[in-house]
Write a structure and sequence with these properties.
Elements (H helix, E strand, L loop, with lengths): L18 H19 L5 H8 L3 H7 L3 H13 L2 H8 L7 H23 L7 H4 L7 H8 L9 H16 L10 H10 L4
Helix pairs in contact: 1-2, 1-4, 1-6, 2-3, 6-9, 6-10, 8-9, 9-10
């Protein structure tokens, strides 16, 4: 005698999270979608990526605009970059530490540009702010004061500015390598 067909397994619900953790999880899921689809991303795509029901998105955020504003604020937050820069091994040679730092900055430039290029101009005001100093990058330079002719904070500013200029897709046709950027900052362009 044939057995009865198996009952469909119930859809697994997302585990209950405190509101701030739920918001953070939704934002983490929406960032790659924004980089791919821009503001045309749907609430269904967001819910699917976050592994939640669509209604949960709007219990965490009042509307899609609030979610997009929160996602952009997260993408522009300097703290993750600062933590990554602090994690660079201090035992590495100075130039190797700077190359590692430059690679992190380059990745951030491309990631932020990719996201921002998919957003409407109404969000540009949220992005207008001066570049703040990086304490973690400054600390890398400060660890080698005898090798510098400028203050560590100024050296860090130069490295970040040159990295932005030589990496940003709208400024540099072909991005320079992190090694080339570091050599230009440390040794200039003279033979």
């Amino acid at each position: 005698m044939p057995s009865a067909p198996a009952a469909p397994s119930p859809t697994k619900r997302a585990s209950a999270l405190p509101p701030e953790e739920r918001r953070a999880a939704i934002i983490a899921a929406v960032l790659p979608l924004l980089a791919e689809h821009g503001e045309s991303v749907t609430s269904r795509q967001i819910a699917c990526a976050a592994g939640i029901a669509e209604g949960t998105v709007f219990r965490a955020f009042a509307d899609k605009d609030e979610l997009l504003d929160a996602a952009l604020a997260t993408a522009l937050d300097q703290q993750p970059l600062e933590e990554a820069l602090q994690a660079i091994e201090p035992e590495l040679p100075f130039e190797s530490r700077l190359v590692a730092a430059t690679e992190l900055i380059q990745r951030r430039v491309v990631d932020v540009w990719t996201l921002v290029s998919h957003l409407s101009s109404k969000r540009y005001e949220q992005m207008r702010r001066p570049m703040t100093d990086s304490p973690a990058l400054t600390a890398i330079f400060a660890a080698e004061p005898d090798l510098l002719r400028v203050e560590p904070v100024e050296a860090a500013r130069m490295l970040r500015a040159l990295t932005l200029a030589l990496t940003h897709p709208m400024m540099a046709g072909t991005p320079s390598s992190a090694d080339e950027i570091v050599r230009a900052v440390l040794h200039g362009v003279a033979r």
